[in-house]
Design a protein that fits this description.
Distance between the termini: 75 Å
Largest sheet: 6 strands, antiparallel
Number of helices: 13
Helix content: 10-25%
Strand content: 25-35%
CATH class of one domain: Mainly Beta
Number of strands: 27
Amino acid sequence: MKAGERTECGSGVLFEDWDFPSDDSSLFCDSSTPISRLQGHITWLRPQEICQSPVVFPATIHHSHAKQGLLGDCWFLCACSMLLKNKHLLDKVFPPHQPMWGDSKYKGSFHFHFWVKGHWTEGYAKLHGSYEQLWAGQVSEALVDLTGGLAECWSLSHFGSEEEEQHTSKENHNQARRQRLDLDIIYPLRATCALSCSTQSIPGGDSELGQHHAMAVMEWLDVKTVAGSRVRLFRIRNPWGRCCWSGAWTEGGAGWRSLDSVDASDIQARAAQGDFWLDETEFLSQFDDVTVGYPISEEGHLRNIYTGNPLPHRHHLAGRWVNGLSSGGSRNSSTYSSNPKFWLKMYEKGEVLISLLQHRKWRQYADRPPENDVRRQHYQAIALHMWKVEKKHFHLSRTVNKPPCASTHCHAHQREVVLPGQLEPGHYLVIPSIYQPGAEARFLIRVFSSSSSSLSALSSPAPLLPLTSDGEWETSHFRGSWVEGSSAGGSRNFPFHGQNPCFPFTVCEEPVTAGLNIKVTLRQSRADTDLLPIGFHIYKIPAGEQFHSIPSEDPVASCVPHCHTPDVSLSCSLPCGAYLVVPSTYQPDCVGEFTISLARRINRRVVKSQEKLGKAIQEVSHISMMRS
């Protein structure tokens, strides 16, 4: 059973998700992973059909680890371990007091909330498109999705030779040093922060599943040996549910003999199935990198892992890089200054964390890239640069030609990069960039600070992206609104979906050539900080029937799941006929205005012409002067 969405169910009728059904479309994407061998052999059952008394969590929550199966989602399971250490975070993801099996109020679904693009929403595999899309990922991404906070990946390997480091600028050198693992920095926060470790080969030489496996650090502590020295031990959990280590600290290993027998017995007893212990030397030598999730207090405040101090002030703004408008590339490019720009104002001295999070772009591959290159599958190489400026005397070109006061180490193929700093009061210019000029993506700028601050965009948001130039297109625009109680029916999971506004259109001729012939964009008229989750369906009106209501048949095309974005788009190929576009918010009774842009490709006949260019146009320049 999947994590479902709220629906109005009749008595005895259990929930079914129309947008994420119990069939192969929810499991598979391109059938390029080992789970594709399951096609044709899947039986969908509810938990109560599998066992007599199903439970979500056992009585002892710390033993409720999920075991990884055939799906390559170790990165997500490792992030879930943070929820077991912080009940207030678990309650945010899985709200308590939901009806369970056997309860008369149970309707066949549970609600799980995830942080996506600045908002909390429901359904994780559904948000990605299918379970197969969860194959291979980054622990840092899952940590952010589960907490709404921040996570950083620290390398355990060297960043380069001494000669390379000598040619690194001061600010980049400091950034590189900061990203190298220093366990002493986060040791005081070990009980509340998340720590995960990854390797390209399994520790101890076990290569059963090949490359890039992530594991969770469940516990780490400093222990005094019999000789009086101290040793730092880590309890690692393998999502496979079995031990894969044969070092000095396995059961019966030589390491335990260096400890007091009582201490050794107590520590070994903490290991659950799939757990194993190793010391700091083994830890640093066996793993390639670690991911650190920032602690979040019960009040919802992020804590700085470098200082341990809370960062109660937070802001976020959405933006986008658009080719020819706001995608200026790196500082190597002459168009760098056209990138989106933001003002950060510090009202007093304080600690600051600035995050640049780009939205994922799904891409299809004939040959799936290797798992350890997952970041390059979906993300642009991004970076953040910041300058302290005097706003009254601000000159853009002069500013960006000076060295920034702070920047990320380099452009990185990461979903999110984080820039920490200790800032004085004043104005700061923050510029996010993609390395390649003209590359396009959406992003979110987030600021967490210990003292009062504000964040604002330097210019208005970019307009809608233009349609691809692949022939002649005829575009129509429709305006509408969702009104509570009359035309805000919500998604197909709700019985009032048919009350949503409907916009009929026709496809009059078959495409002359194969390809797309319809493009629909739904844009909501709301501030980026107050977006509703939106989507739309396209229904075909049966031949010979008049349009009276939404047809009972399933949509022929859909732009779902509903997303907290300014606009959502869908391109498709439709045969001749009459159709309806039905835009909706996810929940019913959400009020808002919107615009629908509908583009239809036109197949014009070629007209032979001998028309020639007439009189040349003379370009004249005029200079106007203002007299005072």
